[in-house]
Amino acid sequence: MRPDRPWVLYTGSSRVWRSDDGGDSWVALPTHAVSGTWTTDVVEAIAVSAADPDLLVAAKGPAVAVSRDGGSSWSVTEMPARVNNVAASPFDAEQVLAALARTGSGEQLLHSEDGGSTWLPGGAGLPPFAVQVVRWDPTDPAVVYAGTDLGLYRSDDGGWTWSAYGDGLPAASVHDVRVLPDGSRLVVATHGRGAWELVIPTPP
Known about the structure:
The protein is mostly beta strands and 204 residues long. Helices cover 0% and strands 45% of the residues. The protein contains no helices and 19 strands. The strands form five sheets. The protein has a five-stranded mixed beta sheet with strand order 4-8-7-6-5, with no helix packed on it. Strands 9-10-11-12 form a four-stranded antiparallel beta sheet, with no helix packed on it. Strand 10 and strand 11 form a beta hairpin. It starts with 8 loop residues before the first strand and ends in a 5-residue tail after the last strand.
């Protein structure tokens, strides 16, 4: 969904589609790649930055595709593993995260500070299992949540370092995380262990 126009929706197949009428009709966006190669891999996730709604970030197989013109053209960057999810900061469109389906040695999460042009390791403290989802807190640019195959993790420095989060949550694979607009609660959807709601403590 485009944050400034909630009736504008996006979905993916082997390309990105946009609806300008709340999902009643859809148009296919171009697949023109100004750099990299637009492949036939399925688009697993799409992120739109509230800081710049013309910035689209798509998880596409083992690559991330970024458009700065609302989907008219794309820059495609190969990643070291399949990309499960992407997140663009609602406060700074240059800050983008990519969650990787990677286990063992190597980074499970990559961080970009230039809108997806270049990527750096950003998974310090995460377990050596796949990251399924990343979500920014809508009220605090420093807080990001990551759902991994070994539970929920939180970053307090914009997605660079992480620690386990959520007393009482099972160490199950977390496939989705949603934070309320006021930042007071989050809902965690797990694989096989149900959905959980957590109250986020307000800092003193």
